[in-house]
């Protein structure tokens, strides 16, 4: 997750502060993989098929409250249900780390972010999110 605070004036842009942490979409996939492995203890842990199913579930959970995931091969694949609530709960530590990184970068930029309110020499008028993980509703 990359973070930048950019000041804009008269058509010019100046990067005031940057920061970030190595957390993103693949980490979110792994959180879902952990949930799937807990729900399917007899399966093959960390299999590429299960990881692919976790990634597809992540994408689906950006617009749906619940998703069914078929895992296994052969005549009797097992269907597991994942909810957005389970996903968001699994992401809490990652989201907390991202929030702290945003706050740190904002502080270096001279910006106080809510809950304290926006104050300081800069005013945040727009937030631009990038990357696939930015679609996660949590």
Automatic annotation (TrEMBL):
This is Molecular chaperone DnaK. It comes from Lotharella oceanica. Pfam families: HSP70. The keyword Nucleotide-binding applies. The keyword Nucleotide-binding applies. GO terms for molecular function: ATP binding; ATP-dependent protein folding chaperone. InterPro entries: ATPase_NBD, Hsp_70_fam. Keywords: ATP-binding, Nucleotide-binding.
């Amino acid at each position: 997750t990359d973070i930048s605070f950019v000041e804009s004036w008269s058509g010019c842009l100046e990067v005031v502060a940057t920061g970030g942490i190595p957390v993103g979409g693949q980490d979110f996939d792994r959180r879902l993989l952990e949930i799937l492995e807990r729900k399917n203890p007899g399966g093959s842990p960390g299999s590429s098929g299960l990881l692919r199913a976790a990634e597809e579930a992540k994408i689906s959970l950006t617009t749906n409250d619940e998703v069914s995931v078929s895992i296994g091969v052969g005549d009797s694949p097992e269907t597991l249900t994942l909810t957005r609530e389970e996903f968001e709960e699994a992401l809490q530590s990652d989201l907390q780390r991202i929030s702290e990184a945003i706050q740190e970068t904002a502080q270096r930029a001279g910006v106080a972010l809510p809950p304290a309110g926006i104050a300081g020499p800069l005013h945040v008028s727009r937030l631009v999110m990038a990357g696939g993980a930015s679609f996660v509703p949590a």
